[in-house]
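[worker-b] picked up task from shared queue
[worker-b] task type: protein-ligand structure
[worker-b] ligand name resolved to adenosine-5'-triphosphate; SMILES cross-checked against name lookup, match
[worker-b] sequence length check passed
[worker-b] input payload:
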Amino acid sequence: MLLDVRHLHKAFGGNQAVNDVSFSLHAGELLALIGPNGAGKSTTFNLVNGQLAPDSGHITLDGVSLLGLQPHELWRLGVSRTFQIAQTFGSLTVVENVQMALLSADGQSLSPWRRATHYRRNDALALLAQVHLHEQANRPCSALAYGDVKRLELAMALANEPRVLLMDEPTAGMAPDERHALMDLTRRLVTQRGVAVLFTEHSMDVVFGHADRVLVMARGALIAQGTPAQVQADAHVQAVYFGSGKTFGGSHTSQASEEASRHPMTGLTTSQPSTTGDPS
Ligand SMILES: Nc1ncnc2c1ncn2[C@@H]1O[C@H](COP(=O)(O)OP(=O)(O)OP(=O)(O)O)[C@@H](O)[C@H]1O
Ligand SMILES: [Mg+2]
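[worker-b] inference finished, payload out:
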């Protein structure tokens, strides 16, 4: 077991967004976290990667507590994350975005006015090739289609050779073919490098077609977990999805993105910080 989460609680005012959530994630495992809008999935991610502090509970990586560590400290330990609303630097080129992530992974400080143009460029191009974006390397990031921004974000998340990769709605805004291609790519990372991946996803064909195991949240609590087949057959899960009139197929993003001046994982800033917007 690589990542272990025990009895996590997080409330916003009177709203128990995460209520006694426990799960573990193994090296070489692709674990899906699903649930209706507002179930607490992104909040769980924010707790695991240090953006939020839990009210109570424990999170350990290889037996070492992660509580109290900041996102960039976790990133140095090999916990990478991609976001429901992709976080990239729109003012930089595609390859420079990856170079920035490499700089951070190497512990290099970066002045706000310095660009990463020459830093480990070939390594950055190799990371882009992995996500099939190398042909767009020199385009401004702001010119990319949304699905391509999501793949760029993945390349950036790989810059620190993560042991744990948290992906919040990695395929949102992508066409069905692109979704499966991205998940096939993720699967290769899992098998070839032994990366442990936790991802949230609203597209059920992606979840049931790619995950090894599925966790189901509703109203802050974990209501089921098991193989895709077990979870699909679970009466409680069916009631939560079908009883509410929501289908398994819907894709939706609801969170507003904050205009971050600092990349949330790498901690880097650029002269003209920019986050890519919600496609809808
Ligand atoms: N920063 C915050 N302040 C107050 N309430 C919040 C905050 N973040 C999340 N919430 C609330 O916590 C609950 C869980 O939200 P969360 O974003 O974790 O859900 P989610 O499962 O990721 O939903 P979605 O599928 O829409 O992305 C919701 O009721 C949400 O309104
Ligand atoms: Mg969410």
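[worker-b] attaching auto-annotations
[worker-b] Confidence is low (pLDDT under 50) at residues 249-260, 271-280.
[worker-b] releasing lock
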